[in-house]
Amino acid sequence: MPTAPRTTEIAKSAPPPARSVLRDTAFLRLWTGATASGLATWALPFVLGLAVLDRTLSPAALGLLLAARTVGFLAAVPVGGVLADRHSRRGVVLWSGLAAAASAPLLAAGLGRSLPLMALAAALAGAGQGACRPAFQALTAEVVDAGRRQQANAAMTLSVRVSTLAGPALTALLAVALGTGTLLLGIGALWLVAALTPGRGTRPAPDGAPSPAATQRPSFLAEFADGIREARRHPWFIATLAALTAVIATGYSATGVALPLISRDRYDTGVVLAAATTAYTAGALAAALLIARWRPPSQGWAALAGLAAYGFAPLSLLLPVHPAVVVAAYAVAGVGIELFNVPWFTATQREVAPDKLARVSSLDFMLSYGLAPVGLALIAPAIDAFGPRAVLTVCALICFAAPAAAALVPSARHFSSRPARKAGAP
Q1: CA 89, CA 333: separation in Å to the nearest integer?
Q2: Crossing angle for the helix pair 89-110 and 180-196, nearest 10 degrees?
Q3: What are φ and ψ of residue 144, in 5° steps?
Q4: Minimal CA–CA distance to 291: which of 231, 208, 245, 347?
Q5: What is d(CA 303, CA 176) in angstroms, rounded to the nearest whole number?
Q6: Residue 412 has pLDDT above 80, yes or no
Q7: Is the dihedral angle over the CA atoms 372, 377, 380, 382 positive or is it negative?
Q8: What is the pLDDT, as a whole number, of residue 283?
Q9: Which tens digit of pLDDT belongs to each residue from 317-354?
Q10: How is residue 76 annotated by DSSP?
């Protein structure tokens, strides 16, 4: 019959259904490495906090070590971004992970003996963490095709949220049987997993002539400036990064400083603090599961609305409301931040030139994460000078207003400067 061959031809030409990213060995190796690095990053301040509890470390020394780690992070992020665009992203992950792993025995050796050695090791740990972040981000774009990157980024952030939820209890249980020094060595083992597990990506072939010889390469500063120029080509990126930085520097600071104070002074219990932070993580966990599949028509606006939802956290602390209201507000903030994070990472991987992706990602981490300690340092003195209500009001207003202002940029609607595309298109 004449119709049979045509039916067969159509069936053969139909594209096969996309395989789940969770069944992709290359991505699973990358996910394992990124998860291990996230666990190690989260665990270090927690384990050092345990050292304060057993009086091996003073609170002042803890603050010094965390500051040293931040300095190392900020110094290494732009360097890691340039190296990851100049050389193999896999190689940058390897060497930065090994550097962070080497910091763990140094921290253990200095614990209770040498604070300068610990400070040097903390800076090394921060440098390893900072250098690997843009490399992991760019490596994801190499390992996963465009159509599955949102699912991949959701899987990445899902692992972080699960670790944050289960990590404190697991670490506390381990601390009963193991000393702080042993736990620090365990962090080093996690960094080894982060360094050694991911496989190689596939760098896109450059257009035109071969790349110039190493002796003809521009300087680090020139290459980093080239990344800044690439970021400026995308108005939605600049506007959204400014909004994200403002929200983290204010809303995150309110979470870190005001919530413990209000939990203690207004509610006379630490339960509100624990419940609110747990609700935030649980909300983010639920949102990561949702955003792995959901493709809103105006993805940029939906993501910015999620970012603005962080404003409910400081808003809930303004008035003497029932503790359940505070917990619910933090759950909403957690949902919102993950509905923002995953489309934000995915759009950056899609829109930015592949050979400049790590440098542009390093700008994200430098500003959004780098300025967070500044907000934390300023918010406590501001509360002492102006009172918690005034400071929390300003924080809430900034959290709502900054994403709304970013949404006014025309290309922010779809997180793309290209013509509007159908929802869900890569």
Answers
A1: 33
A2: 170
A3: -115, 135
A4: 347
A5: 42
A6: yes
A7: negative
A8: 92
A9: 988 899 999 999 999 999 999 999 999 999 999 999 99
A10: H
